[in-house]
Write a structure and sequence with these properties.
The chain is mostly beta strands and about 90 residues long. About 0% of the residues lie in helices and about 40% in strands. Strands 4-1-6 form a three-stranded antiparallel beta sheet, with no helix packed on it. It has a three-stranded antiparallel beta sheet with strand order 3-2-5, with no helix packed on it. A hairpin with a 2-residue loop joins strand 2 and strand 3. The two termini are about 20 Å apart. The N terminus and C terminus are likely disordered.
Length: about 90
């Protein structure tokens, strides 16, 4: 999968961890790091897809498998508004 580099503000992206080693993988977004957590229940990471971001896996022994769900940003929200986002 490949991303096209363009500035848009149409998608809120959600990462749902399926197979991850806790505190070894996650998302970096605009200088902020959020790690995947599975306990007590999987933590969904949500961020604005228009911002610079990167998924990472620091574990040499485990895969990082996440379900990516894109939610179309509602037209009535201003482009600077971040809904349930850490980034």
């Amino acid at each position: 999968m490949c991303s096209v580099l363009r500035r848009s503000n149409h998608v809120i992206r959600c990462h749902i961890p399926l197979i991850v080693e806790e505190n070894s993988s996650g998302v970096w977004c605009m200088g902020k790091v959020q790690f995947h957590k599975l306990q007590p229940k999987p933590q969904i990471l949500v961020f604005d897809d228009s911002k610079v971001h990167l998924g990472f896996n620091l574990s040499p022994n485990h895969y990082r498998c996440v379900l990516i769900v894109d939610v179309v940003r509602s037209a009535h929200l201003p482009t600077s508004f971040e809904l349930y986002s850490y980034c």
